Amino acid sequence: MAEKVHRVAVVGGGISGLAACRFVQKRLQDSCSSGSKRIILIEQGQRLGGWLHSLRTPEGFVFEAGPSSIRTVGSKGRATLRLVDELGLRQHVVPCSSLAIKNRYLYTNGSLLRLPNHPLKVLGSPLMRSAVFAFLREWTVPRSQQPDESIHSFFTRRFSPVVADTLTDALSIGIFGGRSQSLSIKSCFPFLHEYEQKYGSIGLGMLREMLASRSGQEKNEKNQNTKTTKNEAAAEEEEETDEGYLSPAVQEMQKMQVYSFREGVETLSRALEQKIREDEHTDILLNTAVERMDQERDGTMSLSLGHGMTVRAEKVISALPSHALAHCLRHHPTLEQDMLKIPFASLALVHLAYTEPLLPAGVEGFGYLVPAMEKQPILGVQFNSSAFPQQDPQPGCTRFTVMMRVEKGQENRTKDEWQAIALDSLQRHLRLPPAKTAALASPARVNVSVDLNAIPQYVVGHAALVDSIRGALQRDFPSLHLVGNSWGGVGVNDCVENAWRTVHRLQL
């Protein structure tokens, strides 16, 4: 009897693996005979969803061990919104509050500085005035001749050291959990690198893109009006093939800018898992690690699972982090070494919940970030109740998420130690009056999550390294394809869109 060969094996059950598996299902939905298995999803852990991990406490608070919100902007935002729409999650979506969208803070010079949300307010801040003057002279700065450089170097050169030390360092922390001095401008903010190389100026590039976006929006609105005259079946068929089509629900959700779900971001991965399990032609293996991957002469791939078990597939999509995939390809020393060159940041998150309002008067927004120059033990704080009050058990509550980087030698810190650092930082940074300071010390619920190797760090040279890895895979493992945050963006939207593009390039 011939060995069963799956059409596609997806390795890794985080958001990238789940999205890739679902997109493969949709491509193969009419191409498999009854009773045969065409897809297999393999996950080492006991649950699917990866870093998307939401907890509803007994008191009714939502804590996020991973990302707490998703943006709607751009093609990547639309890719996730389409998935939300397909999964029937529109009624579970909650928008970020308008105050949280408008108000974001920096901790600088010992106090919280609200970033201006209106052009006329920019000149009221010495820090922002210097940023404006730097922006006005930016168009005179010549292009860099280097293939890549750090975010800090890029903004120092094109704007000023003050902008690099404060605004861009905080931005690097908020997205990557890393420092701008080591992260790559080309890999972390490729559009800024492209603006400089293509237009010679960030400002000119932004202006050109804004004008092009308006023109494209008018064209899209015209297309949308045309499509509304078609019957529903034709519109659904076109949505599968036309990336530009936006359903009315997606168009409505795009207006939110930032959103989450009433039960947390893990709602998305749970719904994906449920949808995937509905397909009788898909197998899911949990608590199963892939130990080795081999490219066979007949074009298939063999996955060794341990205990003598082997899975064969025509195509393999790896959603593993780079260091885990390196282990599976350790018989290819060059690939293993290159994949292990991608560093990861480890994070500790301390979630604190209170049944009373604790933010200082006049402070309400998404939260604040702490530039490295401030030499503080935390990266920043999210004001979760301000952003998503729908995730509290009742009005008037306060939820904080204090973010800290786990440095070498800190892996064995206890949860009490992380909590003490978080509370001390909040007390100093928020400058609460005595009554609120006392309340801060006694949260209604605390949760501490430590995630080692949480976020890949796209250091200078990352793009060239990934190109080299992809080239070696195409040569020696042509049936192996990459998705996940080690390669093409660390956010939820990055992972979903990368999975979509990878699956739609496959020859199935």
CATH superfamily descriptor of the largest domain: FAD/NAD(P)-binding domain
- The radius of gyration computed from the alpha-carbon positions, rounded to a whole number of angstroms, is 24 Å
Low-confidence stretches: 119-123, 224-242
Mean pLDDT rating: 89
Q: How much strand content do the residues show?
A: 15-25%
For the secondary structure, the number of strands is 19
CATH class of the largest domain: Alpha Beta
**How many domains make up the coordinates?**
3
Query: First CA to last CA: what distance?
Result: 24 Å
Structural class: alpha/beta
Q: Tell me, what's the shape?
A: globular
Please name the CATH topology of the largest domain.
FAD/NAD(P)-binding domain
Provide the CATH architecture of the largest domain.
3-Layer(bba) Sandwich
Largest sheet: 7 strands, mixed
**Number of continuous helical runs:** 19
Helix content: 40-55%
Q: How do you describe this structure in short?
A:
Helix content is 41%, strand content 19%.
Describe this structure in words.
- About 40% of the residues lie in helices and about 20% in strands.
- It is an alpha/beta fold and about 500 residues long.
- The chain has three domains: about 5-55 and about 70-95 and about 260-345 and about 460-505, FAD/NAD(P)-binding domain; about 100-105 and about 345-455, Alpha-Beta Complex (Polyamine Oxidase, Chain A, domain 2), CATH 3.90.660; about 140-200, protoporphyrinogen ix oxidase, domain 3, CATH 1.10.3110.10.
- The strands form four sheets. Strands 1, 2, 10, 11, 12, 13 and 19 form a seven-stranded mixed sheet that branches.
